[in-house]
Amino acid sequence: MEKKKKRKKKRHGRRRITPMQSLLQGLFLGFCICLLVFSLWKLASIFMGYHSGEKEYDDLRQYVLSEPADAENTTAANHTEEDSENEGDATASTSQRMERIDFASLEEINDEAVGWIEIPGTDISYPMVHTSDNTYYLTHTFKRQENKSGSIFIETSNAPNFSDLHTIIYGHNMKDGSMFAGLKNYEKKTYYEAHPSIYIDLADGTHCYQIFSCHEADITDISYTIGYAADDTYASFLDSLTASSLYDTGVSVGTDDSIITLSTCTNKGEKRFVVHAKKVY
């Protein structure tokens, strides 16, 4: 009797898969395969987008004809009236600097080109553009190709020749480290100490900027205000930027200085990381 009961239990323990269950399992498996294929396609698309964007900018770097001069050896003092006795040498130096970027060729490719930005020793070396809105170049490269890498562009309300006391420059924080992704490295003072200068090449030549503040900011932060005159309001603005810095750079800034702000999104996208620098020459 006990053997019969055991056999009966075994018979009852086996579950038969119905046609409906088999169909559902097949549909679920098919869904998983489709999801995997879609994910792989999406990743491939992102990778190809990164690759095509950076390849374009790699090609454009042929128009950078030389490395920027060392800021420690080429200071603003070299271009003042105090060095009038070396006026000939200063003129030659200025002429040499103007040939660092083939600006005419950049303009032929994109008539909205304003120049080039470079931070020596980093991956930041890109052409800059300026247009009538702040959205187009979020999704278009310098050659006007649709791409998530976008471009490095100037705030539309700023003068394209950097004549404003405060000029804002935007760039994406790309996951592959391109565009302005490297700005987040300025969270560490040691990185700043290794890369303290930013070079801006315009139609009139190379200009050097010295970093004085680095920090996170909300999109409504005072860092995004422009249109200043050299007065007490501007002085208060500069004091606010200096006080917000993650560390003391030791670089002083005053109302006689014009500055730039480099801005990019943080990884979470809720805030921005900004780097402020004053013009040295």
From TrEMBL:
CDD domains: Sortase_B. One of its GO terms (molecular function) is hydrolase activity. Keywords: Hydrolase, Membrane, Transmembrane, Transmembrane helix. InterPro entries: Sortase, Sortase_dom-sf, SrtB. The chain crosses the membrane at residues 21-41. The keyword NADP does not apply. NCBIfam families: sortase_srtB. This is Class B sortase. It comes from Hominiventricola filiformis. The gene is srtB.
